[in-house]
Amino acid sequence: MRRLPVLALAATGLIAQLPQAEQNAAALGHIEAARKAAGKEHHGIFEGICTQFAKPAAGRTAAAPRPRRADPPDRATWHAEPVKVFDNLYFVGEKDYGAWAVTTSEGIIIVDAVFDYSVEDEIVNGLKKLGFNPATIKYVIVSHGHRDHVGGAGYLQEHFGSRVVMAAEDWDLVAQTQGKWLKPRRDMVATDGQKLTLGDTTITIYKTPGHTLGTLSVLVPVKDNGKPHLAASWGGTGFNWLNGGSAYITPDRPSPFWFGQYIKSAARFREIVAKAGADVLIANHTHLDDAKNKLPAMAKRRPSDPHPYVIGNDAVVRYVTVASECAQAGLARER
To answer: Between the CA of residue 290 and those of 12, 44, 203, 309, what are the distances in Å?
Structure first.
């Protein structure tokens, strides 16, 4: 597989100087590379962030604004049942949003906390259904400071004394975010390469800015009937700055800045998961790791069946490659 550029197109000014035809060719080349890397496993991420760059900006249809919804929305639209995925890893998220419970010998670590209105139903009651005491939640790692991932962290902090872990930049983002939902009090500040140990389990945290300035990605050791595996979670996927207005785009942080940050982070995390041998992919949006098919498959899995989430190191590396190539396609479309 072709290695990602060491500088990951850091010289964004060169893209802007290319003639339109060359920009088109560059964008389409990256889309094709992403398509190849996606293979049969990663349709969700490819369709979600890459196909929008198939046409030049002038020929693309602007994304329709999301319709306003009730807050909180009807439970039937988001509720999902908890699922045991590995010996020590459980899905406790919504239909569309992932949240994960890592069980250890000394308590539970939650990775992403879904919304404020769903955290009690999904995480707290989900753990109870699985036979765990939510009062033993010791840490909540938040991949980034958007409400669909940090929204429930304040509840867990307030009710169980759980320590909330987030990058400094996204603690600032949460503090600046408008809304009446319960925000967590500033707590633990994640550092790059930090090892968070609880009992017999150590999760490694990496700063991978791009989706936000403080996005975190993690490696989580898991076991399947005692056999060890390593799960990787890419902390933030979408290119929010394309529709984020002043929340993202400023004179010193134009669109190429965000693409550049994202590309560098993806190149680095790709090398990390390759070296670590990660062979499991989990995500904080269920369309990205195909959870909507894999979680039901877990319920039907027989002891002799392969594990739906164990996809191999090559496939995990290709997932991060898709993210990088799609970002490079977007950068090539910049004027």
So the answer is: 33, 7, 23, 9
Distance of CA 91 to the CA centre of its chain: 14
Size (the chain), residues: 335
- 90 neighbors 282 (Cβ within 8 angstroms): no
**Residue pLDDT, tens place only, 128-180:** 999 999 999 999 999 999 999 999 999 999 999 999 999 999 999 999 999 89
Backbone angles phi, psi at 198, to 5 degrees: -135, 115
Say which CATH topology domain 12-57+73-332 has: Metallo-beta-lactamase; Chain A (3.60.15)
Cα separation of 236 and 217, whole Å?
Answer: 8
The separation between CA 176 and the C-alpha centre of its own chain, rounded to angstroms, equals 21
Contact 284, 149 (CB under 8 A): yes
Q: Which residues contact 60 (CB under 8 A, 6 or more apart)?
A: 52, 53
Q: List alpha helices for the chain, DSSP H.
A: 12-17, 20-38, 43-49, 119, 125-130, 147-150, 153-160, 168-176, 255-276, 291-300, 313-332
Give the whole-angstrom CA distance, residue 114 versus residue 285. 10
CA distance readout (Å), 215 to 92, 183, 265: 21, 17, 10
Strand partners of residue 201: 198
* Closest residue by Cα to residue 27 from 61, 62, 66, 54: 54
pLDDT in tens, 210-240: 999 999 999 999 999 999 999 999 999 999 9
Q: Structural domain boundaries of the chain?
A: 12-57+73-332
Rg (CA), the chain: 20
Residues 229 and 312: their CA atoms lie apart, in Å, by 10
Strands (E), 31-93: 83-86, 89-91
Task: Tell me the angle at which helices 313-332 and 20-38 cross, rounded to the nearest 10 degrees.
Answer: 160
Q: What is the reported pTM?
A: 0.92
Q: CA 66, CA 314: separation in Å to the nearest integer?
A: 35
